[in-house]
């Protein structure tokens, strides 16, 4: 059963207290500078019951509550986008995907760890030659008796070197039948033949961004998502019910980031004095701050409508694509405007605004790029191609 407003308020207050303990501002800055976030922090979210929001009660969870889960991601994202990202590796990549698409054996194997905050998956979709066109994946899986043999490579596989398993999209049949010969395979990180290298990024620093190579990696056939009978069902699983939540999760992180940036600029404008008055009294600054508050509110409205449609079980693919498209670009622009309010201080790494800007640059890229979302919107609204 979904939490009511009073329960959500209590959860938010408990979460804020936990964040004050484990993620004070100076610690968050240290994670970014060191490009390292302690993975064991995930277990603290488990202790609070946050990770259990992605798991049904029969597997040790509190019952899947998407509204509460997205609220939590937004609240954590306001403190640290990368810490919110750590939660996604547990609740989304593992919890929601296995809960919706996994076999009974897979649910019993993985979901109790999600509920406890001790299980992380990485998402193995993109490849060196494959970005948005996922039906063209080149990583291959061959069935040999009761084993699956995987060869290939994945790119932008965030967290692969610290996760428990990699949730991997593979080509499991002739390339000509591109949508009918895809499968998801769960590949434990420590399996022989799995190797990772890391790539530095300008923002969202703390969880490694990895390339992964699979060389004759062998896993049981039971590791096919949903069990052996789901071989070649990868495309329908990719476009399944969890896809809409996957689009809204980066939106929740973005909302938290946008709120943090607006709050920082709003407060700074009341402290900084120029030309004999606080800069919040200058019309140019006032108009900028009014604009970002207005844009942020429109983002809240879009997010609320998308979550409501999911909760009511209504078709939401169009709405979630519009939300991901609009929030990604709007929050990025909001953060840049807030940086401009702070001037040179917003460019200094002594202030959090500089990190906010770097983190905001990835919003239109990850979780389904804005170009892909524009395609989705035009296609679902049946815009003719000729």
What descriptive keywords fit this protein?
four-stranded antiparallel sheet, Butyryl-CoA Dehydrogenase, subunit A, domain 3, 386 residues, globular, Butyryl-Coa Dehydrogenase, subunit A, domain 1, alpha+beta, Butyryl-CoA Dehydrogenase, subunit A, domain 2, 50% helix, three-stranded mixed sheet
How is the topology of this model organized?
Blueprint: H1 5-22, H2 25-34, H3 41-48, H4 66-79, H5 81-101, H6 104-116, E1 121-124, E2 140-144, E3 147-154, E4 165-171, E5 182-188, E6 194-199, E7 209-220, H7 234-238, H8 242-271, E8 273-274, E9 277-278, H9 283-311, H10 317-342, H11 352-360, H12 370-380
Parallel strand pairs: 1-4
Antiparallel strand pairs: 2-3, 3-7, 4-5, 6-7, 8-9
Question: Nutshell version of this structure?
Answer:
This protein has 12 helices and 9 strands. It has 386 residues and is of the alpha+beta class. The strands form 3 sheets. It has a 4-stranded antiparallel beta sheet, with no helix packed on it. Strands 1-4-5 form a 3-stranded mixed beta sheet.
Descriptive report:
With 386 residues, the protein is α+β, with helices and mostly antiparallel strands. It folds into three domains: 115 residues, Butyryl-Coa Dehydrogenase, subunit A, domain 1 (Orthogonal Bundle), CATH 1.10.540.10; 110 residues, Beta Barrel (Butyryl-CoA Dehydrogenase, subunit A, domain 2), CATH 2.40.110.10; 139 residues, Butyryl-CoA Dehydrogenase, subunit A, domain 3, CATH 1.20.140.10. The strands form three sheets. The protein has a four-stranded antiparallel β-sheet, with no helix packed on it. A three-stranded mixed β-sheet has the order 1-4-5. It is globular and about 80 Å long. The relative contact order is 0.10. The mean pLDDT is 96.
């Amino acid at each position: 059963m979904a939490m009511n407003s009073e329960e959500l308020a209590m959860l938010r207050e408990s979460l804020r207290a936990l964040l004050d303990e484990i993620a004070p501002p100076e610690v968050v800055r240290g994670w970014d500078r060191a490009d390292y976030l302690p993975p064991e922090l995930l277990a603290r979210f488990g202790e609070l019951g946050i990770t259990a929001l992605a798991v049904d009660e029969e597997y040790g969870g509190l019952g899947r509550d998407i509204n509460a889960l997205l609220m939590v991601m937004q609240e954590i994202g306001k403190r640290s986008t990368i810490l919110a990202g750590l939660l996604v590796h547990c609740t989304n990549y593992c919890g929601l995907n296995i809960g919706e698409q996994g076999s009974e054996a897979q649910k019993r194997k993985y979901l109790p760890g999600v509920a406890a905050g001790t299980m992380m998956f990485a998402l193995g979709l993109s490849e060196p030659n494959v970005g948005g066109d996922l039906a063209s994946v080149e990583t291959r899986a061959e069935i040999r008796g009761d084993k699956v043999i995987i060869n290939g490579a994945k790119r932008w596989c965030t967290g692969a070197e610290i996760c428990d398993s990699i949730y991997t999209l593979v080509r499991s049949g002739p390339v000509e039948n591109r949508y009918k010969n895809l499968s998801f395979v769960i590949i434990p990180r420590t399996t022989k033949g799995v190797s990772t290298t890391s790539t530095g990024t300008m923002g969202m620093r703390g969880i490694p961004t990895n390339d992964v190579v699979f060389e004759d990696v062998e896993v049981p056939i039971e590791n096919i998502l949903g069990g052996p009978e789901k071989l070649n069902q990868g495309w329908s699983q990719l476009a399944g019910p969890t896809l809409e939540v996957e689009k809204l999760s980066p939106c929740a992180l973005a909302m938290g980031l946008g709120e943090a940036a607006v709050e920082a600029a709003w407060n700074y404008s009341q402290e900084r004095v120029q030309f004999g008055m606080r800069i919040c009294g200058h019309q140019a600054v006032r108009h900028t701050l009014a604009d970002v508050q207005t844009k942020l509110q429109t983002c809240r409205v879009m997010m609320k409508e998308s979550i409501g449609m999911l909760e009511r079980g209504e078709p939401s693919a169009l709405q979630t694509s519009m939300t991901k498209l609009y929030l990604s670009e709007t929050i990025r622009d909001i953060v840049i405007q807030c940086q401009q309010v702070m001037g040179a201080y917003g460019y200094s790494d002594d202030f959090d605004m500089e990190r906010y800007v770097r983190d905001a640059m990835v919003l239109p890229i990850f979780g389904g790029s804005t170009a892909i979302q524009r395609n989705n919107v035009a296609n679902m609204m049946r815009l003719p191609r000729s």
